[in-house]
Amino acid sequence: SVSAAFREHLRRLGLEDFPCGLGSWVGGRGKHSRWGGPQSAGLSLPLSLQNKSRFDAHTSPRGGRLGLGPDPAGQEEAVLLGEESPEALMELLRDRHSPWALPPDCSPQDQHLREMAVLTPELIRGSNVFQVFRSLRIVGKGVEEVDEGLLQFQQLEELILSANQISRITSANLPRTLKVLELCCNAVAGLQDLCAQPPPELQHLGLGYNRLCGPSQDKYLTVDFWPNLVSLDLSFNNFTDLVGLVSQLSSLQRLRVLVLQGNPLALIPTYRGFLVDSLPKLSILDDIRVGPDERHQFRGLARQPELIRSEARVVVSVGEIKGLPDPSARQQLEVGSEAPVITYSYCVTYEF
């Protein structure tokens, strides 16, 4: 599930382990050293390492006030022996040579979370961590289920779940605050569950490289379900009815970006012209900007659906065939030779 993948990601970030979190990390066999990174099994760190609290709510064992400002008496707090300042801990996180630096493939958000774990640890402890996220990206983690745990992300605006194994999306489990939903490269074959209670403020819906086909799914691509949709990606599915699909998409008055390339209907000769003229507010079609010249060139095409043919011409060019005898290179037989003549014939089959 999405929640399980999220928990595993947090575990890998080590938000409660040195140098993140709030508390002390007692030295010992196999623990982390301040300067040397993970200790070998035969060494130990004699002192405990503590993250000096930056909040007035915490006090030191000696009665010192551990806050951002001076204590009530106006005296600076005393730094305990073995205590790490937030600045020193941040240095360990940011130095790319540090043993605690994140791998290069981690996102800026991951780094931001770890820095928050040093500077404001109480903001990401327990259920508070869900309120931090405006964007959640879980890509290529084998996720199959969009579970109700997502509802804990009450501030979430962007959810990217590409390259997983999701076949159905229960819209009741999606935060109502979502503005971007990206489900590219999954196994989505129907939109009925997604459209039961869709996020009302959604502006981008990405469904490229799935298993959608029309006309059964066309009816879910209307303003009744997506009143604020600005961008829609339906590329590389199995939509075939251009006229039927356009009749539904035309109700999306805010739609400006549309991607339909990779569908069978994109093979229709008048495909682009028909879309450009049928959707006059469209700014970008298949990653190509729609200019005024195109609008003028294709004017009136939307009123001539009879020009759209239900067939397409496919040209196949064979560049090279390897591993077969070349009939054109037959050896010249000597005059009067009784050697047999061998001929070859080939059958090439194309399956579409």
Automatic annotation (TrEMBL):
Q: Note whether Lipid biosynthesis occurs among the keywords.
A: no
Extract the Gene3D superfamilies matched here.
Ribonuclease Inhibitor
Q: Does the keyword Repeat apply?
A: yes
A GO cellular component annotated for this chain's UniProt record is:
cytoplasm
Query: What protein name applies here?
Result: LRC43 protein
Superkingdom assignment: Eukaryota
User: SUPFAM superfamilies per the record?
Assistant: Outer arm dynein light chain 1
Q: Which UniProt keywords apply?
A: Leucine-rich repeat, Repeat
Q: Which InterPro entries match?
A: Leu-rich_rpt, LRR_dom_sf
